[in-house]
Amino acid sequence: MQSLSNRSKLVSNKKLSFMEKLYIPAILGGMLITFKHLFRKNNTLKYPEETKKFAPVYRGMHVLKRDEEGRENCTACGLCAVACPAEAITMTANEREKGEEGLYREEKYAETYEINMLRCIFCGLCEEACPKEAIFLTDRIVPTNFERGEFIYGKDRLVEKVDARIDISARQFTGKRKI
Amino acid sequence: MDGGLLIEKLILVVALFSITLLIAMYSTYLERKVAAWFQDRIGPDRAGKWGILQPLADGTKMFFKEDFIPLNSDKWLFILGPGIAMFTALMTGSVITWGPNFEAFGRTIVLQVADVNVGILFIMGFVSIGVYGIMIGGWASNNKYSLFGAIRASSQMISYELAMGVSVITIVMMSGSLSLRDIVDAQHGMGWFVFKQPVAFLIFFVCALAECNRAPFDLAECESELIGGYHTEYGSMKLGFFLFAEYINMFISSAVIASLFFGGYNFPGMDAFSGNTLAIIGTLAFFAKIFFFIFVFMWIRWTLPRFRYDQLMHLGWKKMIPIALVNLLITAVVIAAYNGWFNK
């Protein structure tokens, strides 16, 4: 029968030849292949001791950045929350008081800022939406937990510490955006 | 019987027992390592350097597990099963010649626990009793998977023992003796039977794989279909006995293959040595051959997929036995012609 698509293949019911029926050459061939694997480099990563280096564009746990003077970049504009397809981000805004200029860069800041890590799909749209270079995804992994409530990360765990900055240089688009 | 002989044999028995257990223990480690190497992995490396203490850790784990007996099982048969498997596995080592005679304390020490004049028959007999351990264990578990495993193991053993026996008969015809010592001595130097009887060797080797219930003939316990087969219901050290018996059988099978076809303790250029030097080198050569075959067993296991049950029976009854019989006939005719029996 003529094939319509010309892609079908005829099933071969070829009888095995005598040598093929012996199976011994095929078995020896298989054993040769496995023997070659004896001398291959192994692919094992000894996990707790060695960790795999992530790609520079890896999207892991978020960080809320501070500027060079240690002031929080975020102004609670809410663009990240709007951009978030998983609706994982919530925040409440507040006005900066006198004397808090060292804490917040702009007059408005996020009083609370929460990301639900169970909702988050780590798409990175918050990072793209942010006009203030405040939120970045890092190469850190969100640790596991037994409690669901523990996965709602507040500012205590999202904002980087002044004395322990998180390096996000690998994720910044070089030469195009400057803070 | 003098006291010296008694002490000598006692030491030999204890040494053989511990060496067998040690080798079986480290075979489990080697199996995991070899599997890992074949699959581009590292294998166990946490317990001690290179994971060298892994068998001890595994053994400790086995001992501290709950010794479980299923409610509907036949309690005594359930306990007897692994016992028989282990006992028969350990017994077969007694007739194997481990090395040339050793001279010490003014006596000739024979490195063989018992030079039974039907040695190879003794081994075949004990190996076939070994299947009772699996059968009883599988039956007593009162579990359909165990029963399937036991049925497969017994039918496989019966079908492959025939071809194995016939290939052994060819060797017996060539050496003119059933004693393993005489068979080994008949292959002096490089006159190994594998060169004269390659077909018999091939059949014996395949049957040995089947007798040990090892891949590609591990239908009795195939994890993917029968969840472990005859030892599905077993745990703790009873399971350990079954697994250990398998590795001991592998060791003994390697030793038998090495004795029957690869000259046992004979090695090329052995005439240059004599006395204790010969004994030591010969024993080492024998163990080198054994370890090589243990490696080949593992090599095959991690290369070939498992046979289907009907393929297994097909291979055993329709291929192995006819080939073995034809090989036997040809050997008989050649021996008869060589001895001039046709001219009488």
Give the arrangement of secondary structure elements.
The complex is a heterodimer of chains A (179) and B (344).
Chain A: H1 18-22, H2 24-37, E1 62-64, H3 79-83, E2 89-95, E3 108-116, H4 125-129, E4 135-137, E5 152-153, H5 155-158
Antiparallel strand pairs in A: 1-4, 2-3, 3-5
Chain B: H1 3-38, H2 54-64, H3 75-91, E1 102-104, E2 107-109, H4 119-140, H5 144-175, H6 180-185, H7 193-196, H8 198-211, H9 223-226, H10 236-261, H11 275-301, H12 309-338
List keywords for this structure.
heterodimer; A: 179 residues; alpha+beta; Alpha-Beta Plaits; three-stranded antiparallel sheet; two-stranded antiparallel ribbon; 5 helices; 5 strands; 18% helix; elongated; B: 344 residues; mainly alpha; 12 helices; 2 strands; 67% helix
Rg of chain B over CA atoms, rounded to whole Å, is 21 Å
Q: Most extensive chain contact?
A: A-B, 15 and 13 residues
Please tell me the overall pLDDT of chain B.
84
Determine the structural class of chain B based on helices, strands and strand pairing: mainly alpha
Which structural class should the secondary elements of chain A be placed in? alpha+beta
Radius of gyration of chain A: 28 Å
Query: Can you count the beta strands of chain B?
Result: 2
* Percent in helix of chain A: 10-25%
